[in-house]
Amino acid sequence: MKELPVLALTLLAALVATRLLMPAARHFGLSWGLVDHPSWRRRHKEPIPCSGGLAIYVVVVVAAIALWATVGPAFEGRAILALGVAGLGVLVLGVVDDRFGLHAEKKLLGQALVATIPMAAGLTLDSLWLPGLGVVELGPTAGAVTLLWYLGFINSINLIDGLDGLAGGIVMLVLASIFVGVVGGDPVGMLWTVALFGAVAGFLRDNLSSQRIFLGDAGSMLLGLWLAGLALGLGTTAPAVPWLAVCAMAIPVLDTASTIVRRWRRGTSVFRPDAEHLHHRLLEVGVSPVRATIVLWSLSAAAAAAGLTGAVHWSASIIVVAGIAVAVVELAYTLDRNADPSMGEVLGYILGARRHLDAVHEVTSHLAEVIDIEHWRPRRESKSIVSSEDPSPAPAKPAAVEAAAGQEKADVVLALPEDSPR
Predict the structure, then answer these.
(1) In angstroms, how far is the first alpha carbon of the chain from the final one?
(2) Residues 123-172: pLDDT tens digits?
(3) Could you state, in order of their start, the residue ranges of all structural domains in the chain?
(4) What are the C-alpha distances in Å from 1 to residues 8, 116, 308?
(5) Distances in whole angstroms, Cα of residue 232 to Cα of each of 42, 70, 235
(6) Are strands 369-371 and 48-49 parallel, antiparallel or unpaired?
(7) What pLDDT, in 10s, does the model give residues 287-300?
């Protein structure tokens, strides 16, 4: 394969450049308050900078300029420029959300406005290739379907970004699927895909290291937008690419869809955050964070390979079997250690068919404990001082205790004990 040396050089350059920029991105995040603090929806116990997406944006833009000057654009030039501008827009939106917090409805409106930029430049889903059916024209529904396409990618990556390496690994699987879709027929598209792959791989190295850094809403939404745009752009010459991208996105899309249905059935706002995503439920049944990431990576690889089986070659079915096998083994390992509950109950709970799991508290006792990071120790000390100064009971004590308990419930977070697997 004559393109192999150039592909390897592009991959290595993007990876190294991202690695070199990551300390600066980490410092910027800490200095400007782009920090993910511990909360009831987070498992880390210390503030972590969430500015990794900034480094990815810089590296990919520089790589795009270099590739455009040497081998040409991957697809129509104005569409690539629109993706760059839209990427900057969603990055700013995410930075504001990471720093100050945005209401989910306002964030969704901002995402929709940003998505209109590449749509206006021609990056639309007018038709979709499906196995056995060929190219299906979308007709007058193309505009609405395209907007849903962008919002689906953006929010699916954003919502699945809950464990170290999870979102980054899934993005790399999607890019690998896109690469296979254009390999042999679009060498320029292969280079552009590899450049983005290398940037994400460089981030993933720091995301999983002791010098941890997160994508943040800015980074996860940026990658979702670029995946959606890249699949549509390369799909003009390789019609199967959008189908392959959707298949590789199966787990994030399933997580997003189940979240919407779950909140709708409970009568709560679909924008209201909770701790019941797929990765949360895996942790709840006793799967360690690392094993939960492996399970979701494996299932994503199986879904991506299933798409390749229908579009490229049947031999990809081997990866489907392998991915499912790895996921089953990881779950079986956890359930064997915990003895209870059964595999059927666990799968029903993880997929949302069961709202509760009877043995969940027994299962997770070794995994996590509920602690109050910032307030537990001061309250304990203050209670001991009050009791030593005035041992006589006060009439208002029950109400105070009740209020303190309510406050503690609002402040607790899920955190791993020191000896938990990582």
Answers:
(1) 40
(2) 999 999 998 888 999 999 999 999 999 999 999 999 898 888 999 999 99
(3) 4-274, 276-365, 368-422
(4) 12, 38, 21
(5) 34, 23, 5
(6) unpaired
(7) 888 888 999 999 99
